[in-house]
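pls design
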C-alpha cells in the first residue's frame, strides 16, 4: 500500500528498526532513516514541513526543548507536532524487560502553554476522562467501549480547550526573516 504521492518527498526518521522496516515495507515514506533525530546533522531550512508525532514525551524536557528549537530551524514553512497533554505514564509491555532509559517510556510532560509560548496554535483531541489508564488496562471490554464512546462524544469540547484533552496538535507557521513584519 503506497501512502505518499510521487510529487511529495517524505522522509521518515525513527530510532526503532522495526518501525523503519514496517514503514519501508508499506512505502509510507519516500525514504526512511534509522537514527535519533536529536543527533542528525541537518542543515537549516532542509524541509518544507516537519511532522513530529508522539516523540517529545519520550525524551527529557530539556532535550525536548532543544529538539523543538532544532525542528524550528530545519523547517521552511510549517511544524506540526502531536503529543499527549500533560503526563501519560504509559509503558509499552513489549519493552518492559528493557532498561528504564528506553525511549519507549514517557519521560516528560507537555502542556499547551509550552507550545503557545513558542508561537504554536494548539488544537485538542480526545477528551480526557478520569481513570483513563485504569479503564484501558482493565479486562472489561464493556468499560473500554463505554470509555471510548464517552470520550468520542465529548471530544469536540476539547478542540478549543486543549487543557482538557488527552492529546494536542501543535502547529507553527514559520516566518522567514524576509517575511517578518518587524524588519
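designed seq:
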Amino acid at each position: 500500500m503506497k501512502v505518499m504521492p510521487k510529487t511529495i518527498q517524505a522522509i521518515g526518521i525513527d530510532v526503532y528498526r522495526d518501525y523503519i522496516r514496517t514503514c519501508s515495507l508499506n512505502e509510507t515514506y519516500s525514504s526512511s532513516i534509522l537514527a535519533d533525530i536529536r543527533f542528525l546533522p541537518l542543515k537549516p531550512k532542509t524541509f518544507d514541513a516537519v511532522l513530529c508525532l508522539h516523540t517529545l514525551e519520550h525524551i527529557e524536557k530539556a532535550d525536548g526543548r532543544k529538539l523543538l528549537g532544532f525542528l524550528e530551524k530545519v523547517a521552511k514553512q510549517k511544524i506540526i507536532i502531536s503529543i499527549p497533554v500533560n503526563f501519560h505514564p504509559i509503558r509499552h509491555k513489549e519493552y518492559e524487560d528493557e532498561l528504564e532509559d528506553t525511549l519507549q517510556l514517557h519521560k516528560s510532560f507537555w502542556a499547551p502553554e509550552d507550545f503557545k509560548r513558542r508561537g504554536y496554535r494548539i488544537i485538542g483531541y480526545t477528551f480526557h476522562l478520569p481513570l483513563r489508564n485504569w479503564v484501558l488496562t482493565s479486562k472489561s471490554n464493556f468499560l473500554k467501549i463505554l470509555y471510548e464512546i464517552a470520550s468520542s462524544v465529548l471530544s469536540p469540547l476539547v478542540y478549543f480547550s486543549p487543557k482538557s484533552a488527552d492529546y494536542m496538535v501543535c502547529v507553527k507557521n514559520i516566518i522567514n526573516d524576509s517575511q517578518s513584519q518587524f524588519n
